[in-house]
Amino acid sequence: MNQSVLLSSLLSTLIQQFKPQSILVAGDAARSCLNESQDTRSQSLTTPFEQSQLQHIHSVDLAVISDLTETLPLQAGQQWLGYLRNLHAPHIILITDPAQAQQQGWQFRDYLAMGLHHIAGTNDGLQLFSYAIENYQPKRDWLNSRFWANPENYDKYRW
């Protein structure tokens, strides 16, 4: 099976899960994989990526990004991705080639530090990561009043 077809099918499955009303497509690989699904609700960014590009876009439901980690150094890429994540897109799909990204200083832990989850990999080395705001901070069992307030101990002990 052709790798671009495999990547396109993975992307279409992920996009269906997010059910976006609007999509931002950034990068050549993302654009080539999503050619058939682009419509008037899509916005597009081209490489080279710059922070100023993000000031002129509208908020979207989903951003599909490629060629970011391969072209930007670690710190600049983290700033760009963080700005997009925090202000414009609650859902992100990132397509990356770890071998090329490593030349820019990116490592696997850097993706995880940005809140991205590893979804899949292809045979030619591309990796897919996703970010969803609703899955970013899982609900913790201990964070409730049952573990913090102990009314049964009021007036029993002197603290």
Question: Could you please describe the fold and organization of this structure?
Answer:
InterPro entries: DUF6231 (IPR046199). With 159 residues, the protein is of the alpha/beta class. The chain has helices at residues 3-18, 28-33, 68-71, 74-87, 98-103, 108-113, 133-136, 145-148, and strands at residues 23-26, 42-45, 62-66, 91-96, 117-121, 127-132. The model has no long low-confidence stretch (mean pLDDT 81).
Compose a concise summary of this entry.
The chain has helices at residues 3-18, 28-33, 68-71, 74-87, 98-103, 108-113, 133-136, 145-148, and strands at 23-26, 42-45, 62-66, 91-96, 117-121, 127-132. It has 159 residues and is α/β, with parallel strands linked by helices.
Q: Helices, strands, pairings?
A:
Elements: H1 3-18, E1 23-26, H2 28-33, E2 42-45, E3 62-66, H3 68-71, H4 74-87, E4 91-96, H5 98-103, H6 108-113, E5 117-121, E6 127-132, H7 133-136, H8 145-148
Parallel strand pairs: 1-2, 1-3, 3-4
Antiparallel strand pairs: 4-6, 5-6
Q: What is the CATH homology-level superfamily?
A: Vaccinia Virus protein VP39
Q: If you consult CATH, what is the topology?
A: Rossmann fold
- List the secondary-structure elements in sequence, H or E: HEHEEHHEHHEEHH
| Annotation field: number of helices | 8
How is the largest sheet built, in terms of strand order? 2-1-3-4-6-5
Shape: elongated
Instruction: Summarize the amount of helix as a percent range.
Output: 25-40%
pLDDT < 50 runs, ≥5 residues: none
Let me know the average pLDDT. 81
